[in-house]
Amino acid sequence: MVQAIGIDVGGTLTKVAFFEHNQQLKLLHFPSVDLHIVSEWITSYKEDIQIGLTGGRAEQLKTFLRSHENLQYLVEFDATIAGVNYQLKKDNHEFTDAVITNIGTGTSIHSLKGTEHERIAGTGIGGGTLLGMSALMTGIHQFDEIVELSALGSRSEVDMLVSDIYFGNKTPIDGGLTASNFGDAGLRPLMERSKEDVLATVQGLVGEVISTLSIQCAFAEDIEHIVYIGSTLANNEPLQKIIGNYTKRKKRTPIFLTDNGYSGAIGALLSKIDGK
């Protein structure tokens, strides 16, 4: 019997977390454009079920749930950090200080030191950028297809590296670093590029901007570990590889949680389980 549900209503996806009768954590997601489907799923349970609700579009979902009296809204940042702490323990990580980078439609970056946390940075570059740029440049709208095709592409003839600028001369910084995302694209028309290469380069742009900002925050806060979370990373090995490699290159430790898109929903669930 399900007694409580945690819901994170994001700009693109609505994530749901609950414990089944055997105390196994169950995770689901729905498109946020179809909130009536989410409400129908919830109302299939008894009306007195405990609901923890968070996320940017939580107020919209609440309009579908007026009959539910046991509904509590949580500040998104608080719910996300609570979920991250739960997941870190579940994945056997023992550190207490970390930069938390939440890659949703945009990206929000937090400092976690023990039990204290605060938002320290953010950027409009995120999953919305990945989907939007991919659609505009290739006509492909589906996330799974973008990920699949990007894994087959190469950024080598679209991005401009530091070494490309110096033409074999000694570079003042690592020549393998990206000097300009899409910097070589002007040398040949876009229609002559393969969709795979373009999508790989979009992933590179998103990954490098987010990891660069996260690394700068980690240095400023004197923190080693950067925990990358968010639905944009789910089953997105190319993006995880870009972010992970760049973070390691800059002498910081990247952490990718097992269920990296569900931290907010898990935190919202825990608020009802723990009686907070």
TrEMBL record:
CDD domains the record matches: ASKHA_NBD_PanK-II_bac
EC assignment: 2.7.1.33
One MF term in the entry's GO annotations: pantothenate kinase activity
Highest rank taxon of the organism: Bacteria
InterPro entries: ATPase_NBD, Type_II_PanK, Type_II_PanK_bac
Keywords, comma-separated and alphabetical: ATP-binding, Coenzyme A biosynthesis, Cytoplasm, Kinase, Nucleotide-binding, Transferase
Gene3D superfamilies found in the cross-reference section: 3.30.420.40
NCBIfam families given in the database record: PRK13317.1
Family matches, as PANTHER family: 4'-PHOSPHOPANTETHEINE PHOSPHATASE (PTHR12280:SF20), PANTOTHENATE KINASE (PTHR12280)
Name assigned to this protein: Type II pantothenate kinase
Species in which this protein is naturally found: Paenisporosarcina macmurdoensis
UniProt lineage: Bacteria, Bacillati, Bacillota, Bacilli, Bacillales
